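chain below, 264 aa
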Amino acid sequence: MTMSADPKGKGFGWLKWPVRVVVLVVVLLLGPLGVLAFGDLDLDTHWRVASRASSGQAPNPREEPTALVLVYGARAHNWRGAFGIHSWIATKRRDAAQYTVYQVIGWNTYSGRPAVAVRRGPPDLLWYGAQPELLLEHRGPGVDALIDRIEVAVAVYPYANEYRVWPGPNSNTFTAFVARRVPELGLDLPPTAIGKDYLSDGQVVDCMPSGTGWQVSVYGLLGLGLAREEGIELNILGLAVGIDFKDLALRLPGIGWLGVLPRG
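prediction:
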């Protein structure tokens, strides 16, 4: 028996899907590669000497009696910043004289310390030279109750002693976990928050971080989400792409939000 040529390629149709996946991943990598080539990344400064000074964005707690919840994100250090951000949460109760900052710091685990770090002080420090962006702010009446719930969520975070840069659990996994436990925050993490789709305890289905929709995700490597805040977002190997209908913007890997209107 001889095999004849298949001019329409039907005999090798199974090859099409792997090729399409590879092509899609390559296309998704164009965003991070573009940021690496043309973005404002510091690729020279060693992390030991990179600035950790306050960016001066947050209200002075001694001058602002109102209760506050602030969520920040800043590009990861060096080339990693082309792919994603590091995110953290800061709170200040009414009349408190300082902020409390919650975040996951991966290198803590190298010395046997918990990955979850809690400190008092400025909430808006540069992340090793990278300028933080305010992702969310809540202030005023009812915020102290939100802070109560944030503290409970931090206490039950299941990966307090674990860390993986990719696909998670990492700093963005932590921020997203807290947001899911406190959906009143309405936190819309950007597509550059790699690790946000790493669901806890092996779950495959959970709400989106904003609490306004749902997602399916397999260990943060493959997933699909639909929500009022985030819009529709596809995640392949941690690279997220989608359309934010609410803000009329694209959600692009490496780049983040790309729209013509201010985010609201």
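The longest strand covers residues 68-75. The mean pLDDT is 93.
thats it, cya
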